[in-house]
Amino acid sequence: MQTLLFEQDVQRIADDASGPITYRPGIIPSTLAATWFDALREQGDWHASSRVMYERLVGVPRLHCHYAVADPALPGVLREALARVAQHVDAPFNSIGLNFYRDEHDSVAPHNDKLHEMLPQQPVALLSLGATRTMQIRRKQPPHLKTELELEAGSLLLMGWNAQLHYDHGIPKLRYPVGPRISVAFRVRPTRNAW
């Protein structure tokens, strides 16, 4: 069972049977968040990928990489980040996924995390580094309430396991210039998939 350890400065996006989704800015000081961003931009094992959409192959509009927490090649900055997140969220995270949004053209469509790739009742914790980007969170069932949340550098967004059943989330493209951002997602995956 997930436990949210922090209580102060928490913005509750959803806090009922369909959630929780909570946001806390500033769990990482801005100078440290900038240092971690620079290190991950340089050290991350970044990959581009493509997928089939509308019967054609298209590039995924962001770079990504994944690490198992037990991987000896896990960058030290991710070990530090995991230790800091563990001060705020009580969950046995074993997988870290990163998305690199290079500019305003990079995005992720509204989606929910695949529950078969996560241990039941365990949360997803998203640490933001770099430029502020807007996340849209939308309830799947009527009323289709939508929240736009500005994810600042050093902030932590926590989504409960059951939130994936009831909400979609995404980072839309923008029509104005914005700097790069890295999203660091901490998950608890079944041992066979802890990549």
- Fraction in helix: 10-25%
CATH superfamily: Alpha-ketoglutarate-dependent dioxygenase AlkB-like
**SS-based class:** mainly beta
Strand content: 35-45%
Query: How many separate domains?
Result: 1
| CATH uppermost class | Mainly Beta
Stretches with pLDDT under 50, minimum 5 residues: none
Q: From the alpha-carbon coordinates, what is the Rg to the nearest angstrom?
A: 16 Å
The count of helical stretches stands at: 3
- Could you give a short account of the major beta sheet? 7 strands, antiparallel
Summed over residues and divided by their number, the pLDDT gives a mean of: 91
**Major sheet: order of its strands?**
2-3-13-10-15-8-6
DSSP strand tally? 15
User: Which second-level CATH architecture applies?
Assistant: Sandwich
Q: What is the element string, with H for helices and E for strands?
A: EEEHEEEHEEEEEEEHEE
Which assembly state applies to the chains in this document? single chain
Shape: globular
Distance between the termini: 21 Å
CATH fold label: Jelly Rolls
